[in-house]
User: Which sequence fits this backbone?
């Protein structure tokens, strides 16, 4: 079974082959469940001209925001611009190409890409700038627009635990976009908190089967909180 062992020894090995101009899909929602160490490795590698697909773009000094800061991202496909002043600045100044996509549509674009479905119709976005120039068909008396699936050269994903064969479990809401991202990458790289022995994962609890995973690495995570809200002491 050695050939099915997805583990790699270093983050350089994990992202070997990533080069300028590629499309990278990144899991996470805000700062929850983001592949923070893989993102840092992309920064260290210095690759440029990337198209990055993710729900949002981190914050100014963490997550995908560090790639924006270093001007490594050419185009961002996302559903949310807030919480990142540099993202907003680059968008408003025209320095960054941005394709704003409704959140559910973005998730379905990647899910469809991972399932081999090239396109789908959705009512979301019809009659708005999102739908401009897109094919329209009527279903059950309601107009729908055609949206194309998304796949990427690399998919970077954060999991909770996995076995050596790449079967992955996510922890609670840190699952978010990670499963659909994992399925839609030509090369999918997963970083996890721990790797367990084969047979320790309950099969019915596995979120991403190893068939989707190409490389697997254990990391240490900061797990930064995006907005900390506490009650004022009485």
Assistant:
């Amino acid at each position: 079974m050695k050939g099915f062992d997805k583990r790699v020894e270093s983050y350089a090995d994990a992202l070997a082959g990533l080069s300028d101009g590629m499309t990278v899909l990144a899991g996470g929602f805000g700062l929850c469940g983001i592949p923070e160490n893989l993102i840092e490795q992309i920064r260290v590698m210095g690759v440029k001209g990337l198209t990055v697909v993710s729900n949002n773009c981190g914050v100014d000094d963490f997550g995908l925001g560090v790639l924006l800061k270093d001007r490594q991202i050419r185009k961002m496909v996302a559903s949310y611009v807030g919480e990142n002043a540099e993202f907003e600045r680059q968008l408003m100044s025209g320095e960054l190409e941005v394709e704003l996509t409704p959140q559910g549509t973005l998730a379905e674009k990647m899910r469809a890409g991972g399932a081999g479905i090239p396109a789908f119709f959705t009512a979301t976005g019809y009659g708005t700038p999102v739908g401009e120039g897109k094919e329209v068909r009527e279903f059950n008396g309601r107009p729908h627009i055609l949206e194309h699936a998304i796949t990427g050269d690399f998919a970077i994903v954060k999991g909770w635990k996995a076995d050596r064969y790449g079967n992955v479990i996510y922890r609670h809401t840190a699952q978010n976009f990670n499963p659909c991202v994992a399925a839609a990458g030509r090369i999918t790289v997963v970083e996890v908190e721990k790797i367990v022995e084969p047979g320790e994962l309950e099969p019915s609890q596995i979120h991403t089967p190893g068939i989707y995973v190409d490389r697997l690495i254990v990391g240490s995570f900061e797990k930064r909180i995006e907005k900390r809200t506490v009650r004022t002491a009485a």
User: Anything to note?
Assistant: The mean pLDDT is 95. DSSP finds six helices and eleven strands in the chain. Helices lie at 11-14, 36-45, 65-69, 85-93, 103-115, 178-183.
